[in-house]
Amino acid sequence: MRRDHSTTPRTPRILGALLLVAAAGVFTLGSAPAAEAAAPTPLNRVIPAPASVQSGGAPYRITWATGVRVDDSAEVRRIGTYLAGILRPSTGYRLPVATGGGARGIQLHLAQGDFGAEGYRLHSGPAGVTITASAPAGLFHGVQTLRQLLPAAVEKKTVQPGPWLIAGGTIEDRPRYSYRGAMLDVSRHFFTVAQVKRYIDQLALYKINELHLHLSDDQGWRIAIDSWPRLATYGGSTEVGGGKGGYFTKAQYREIVDYAASRYLEVVPEIDMPGHTNAALASYAELNCDGVAPPLYTGTQVGFSSLCVPKQVTYDFVDDVIRELAAITPGRYLHIGGDEAHSTSHADYVKFMDRVQPIVAEYGKTVIGWHQITGAHPAKGALAQYWGVDGTSAAEKAQVAQAAQNGTGLILSPADRLYLDMKYTSSTKLGTKWAGYVEVQRSYDWNPGAYLPGAPASSVRGVEAPLWSETLKTSADIEYMAFPRLPGAAELAWSPASTHDWNAYKVRLAAQAPRWDALGIGYYRSPQVPWPKS
């Protein structure tokens, strides 16, 4: 029998179209439209708080017809592809990425404007969402805001029901500080490339732009140096508690650097010196003043080790390490530590820093040191990272403030506010408590611009949240200690001081919990925060 081929295929086509429309949330059979069942996230609900929010107008709904429109630029296309890669698994939509404008969809556009290097404007309305910036970093940060404006289920890797609404209005945003950092200590316990990448993704969500890697300490050396190979193969062979340790090859380090750059983070490598150097001293006897290598160390005490300041081989060693590390680090900074050098006399400390800082400059990098560097002669342009506490002596604070008055920039990391390894309370199983217990409100509720007496507000270049790893072994450990304090550090670094309000912030912080659940981030449920019911 002859079939009428002009009619039979139409039914599956119609059914397919109906299924697509239903999937888009336009209607559901036997119920109210899905769009009526959920309200979009308010524009002012994100972290860090935007500089300016003007809410109003109808929302935009992502549907099967949505595309991502980008400028004819490889970097902008890469950001668009990154965004589409986040949205596709949960929405189930194709979300094609294409150049040129479009009547509907999400558009990423570079244009001249008062955005600075990292600012952006996000405008949302019924026809679509446009993110505009004057540099790709601004577009990327705008994408992070867009993520937070969508339901938390957008972070999941399986298709979710939606609807995918973005509230109407305009956000104008740019950072308070150019340096917004987080430090990960891979020396006390070693973390793999995959673990570091996971943390990078979490930092990027909150517009952190500096990843400080603590690559060497008494317990382990974590970066391969061709001219001194035993640093990694022997000095990197252990960690706190006697584990097997590990180290990054240069290729692995470059992989981390490249991945961070794809998320608009700059890697700041740290080689701590002249103290915190037992792993190096154990690897090469000639670095010791007596020519005798000490045993490897797996404890947690500090201040007992020192490079031999009078020996020329010490500076040959430093030159080689900095030269090789600078060659694989495209970022601006190289951190030389300088803290807790209790086994180095003050005179030797000053001599050492006077010789080492020019080596950093020779290889094209800007020096960062812990704030003890202000007790020597900070190089022009150097940054001092302050990690004192409320109880730090007035003399030490005055020394740092004087250096700031003389032109040394400051990165603020007060240990009793921003050290993410501090216990939340006495019952916290991980972390340490030498700087006191640091609950979420204490971590957030202070002003970097007015924190250090005598230091000009203009001397503050930024804020960094260090995470030391004496007690941390897994990504789950990292996340439990970082969340929920890390977003607060990010807000201190990004948002205008005028937006700072604990009572408002804790509500926005609580709203992040479903997103962390969707991302598989375990976190501390502080009683200070009104978390949604599980």
Protein model, in words:
The chain has 534 residues and is an alpha/beta fold. The protein has two domains: 39-173, Chitobiase/beta-hexosaminidase domain 2-like (Chitobiase, domain 2); 179-508, Glycosidases (TIM Barrel, Alpha-Beta Barrel). Helix content is 32%, strand content 16%. The chain contains 16 helices and 19 strands. It has helices at 10-23, 74-91, 136-149, 193-205, 230-233, 250-262, 278-283, 312-327, 346-362, 394-405, 415-418, 440-444, 475-482, 485-494, 502-510, 513-519, and strands at 52-55, 60-62, 68-70, 97-99, 105-110, 120-125, 128-133, 164-166, 169-173, 179-185, 210-214, 216-217, 220-221, 266-270, 333-335, 366-370, 383-386, 409-412, 460-467. The strands form four sheets. It has an eight-stranded parallel sheet. Strands 1-9-6-7-5-3-4 form a seven-stranded mixed sheet, with helices on one face. Strands 2-8 form a two-stranded antiparallel ribbon. β6 and β7 form a beta hairpin. The protein is globular. The protein starts with 9 loop residues before the first helix and ends in a 15-residue tail after the last helix. The relative contact order is 0.10. The model is unreliable at 1-37 (pLDDT under 50).
In the CATH scheme, what's the topology name of the largest domain? Answer: TIM Barrel
Our measurement of the CA-to-CA distance between the termini, rounded to an integer number of angstroms, reads 61 Å
Q: Give the CATH level 1 class of the largest domain.
A: Alpha Beta
Helical fraction equals 25-40%
| Average pLDDT score | 93
**Individual helix count:** 16
Number of β-strand runs: 19
Q: What is the correct CATH architecture of the largest domain?
A: Alpha-Beta Barrel
By helix and strand content, what is the structural category? alpha/beta
Residue stretches low in confidence (pLDDT < 50, at least 5 long) are: 1-37
Oligomer: single chain
Give me the Rg, rounded: 26 Å
**Main beta sheet:** 8 strands, parallel
The general outline is: globular
Strands side by side in the biggest sheet: 14-11-10-19-18-17-16-15
